[in-house]
């Protein structure tokens, strides 16, 4: 049975609750041996709030460090520091071979900043912890699979961050992801940036000067990519199955359509790491935290996908 590390995320948010609910669910336990990484008292309380009992005889819990008494429903420096410690422990364990994969519950970017930590999210943190040079965020939900070129940056900075090399690199990672997902004969559609795909340069020249050359560069390496397509058209192609993957230029361009159709089941996968990492496609949800109301479907999907993507190393 594959051993999957599940980090509890930010102690003030819904992370502990969805982590526990997923770890205790029968459909997760059928595909892996879940190991919760976090604060034992917090996870135990999250179980009680959710109407469960976290029995250490039945569910493995590892506490790299306690989080202590932190406020519920909002970020804090201590919760930010602890959430990083849990991710680092899981990364180190995966690299040692102690875990087959890791699944991360939501962390707070604000809490990380309050703790003096530099990363704007899991993706950048994981890339630095694993020394990954090529990496990308992929979202999977319903019929959609989306790889993002830029991630956690202000919208006004996106055009300046787009280059032929950056986009071509993400297209190549999308190609690798299709193979990882078992899509041997696949096609990738690349989105434009501007309305109507720039309308021949009338609404912007990024499609002409940057995105199309990137698509051609990827095609020259044997990748079955096409585009750029107008952003308001490209996701329809994926939704109807005409293409297998979309490469989007920025965060919300890719996440809005995916969350529209798979809000409770979407999964985030970090590509380019020397390990398998997935996460639920939602945040800390402070407004509903610690009320027993958080739905674990996305977390359970993340664990199941991690288990399915993980090559069998050894049974533990």
Ordered list of secondary-structure elements with their pairings:
Blueprint (H helix, E strand, L loop, with lengths): L2 E5 L7 H10 L1 H4 L3 E5 L2 H10 L10 E3 L14 H20 L4 E4 L4 H6 L7 H8 L6 E6 L2 E5 L9 H4 L2 H17 L7 E4 L14 H15 L4 E5 L1 H9 L5 E4 L2 H12 L4 E5 L5 E4 L16 H13 L7
Parallel strand pairs: 1-2, 1-4, 2-3, 4-11, 6-9, 7-8, 7-9
Antiparallel strand pairs: 5-6, 5-10, 10-11
Helix pairs in contact: 1-3, 1-12, 8-9
Structure description:
The protein has twelve helices and eleven strands. With 316 residues, it is an alpha/beta fold. The protein has two domains: 1-132 and 273-316, Isopropylmalate Dehydrogenase, CATH 3.40.718; 134-264, Isopropylmalate Dehydrogenase (3-Layer(aba) Sandwich), CATH 3.40.718.10. An eleven-stranded mixed sheet has the order 3-2-1-4-11-10-5-6-9-7-8, sandwiched between helices. A hairpin with a 5-residue loop joins strand 10 and strand 11 (277-280). The radius of gyration is 20 Å and the shape is globular. Residues 312-316 have low confidence and may be disordered.
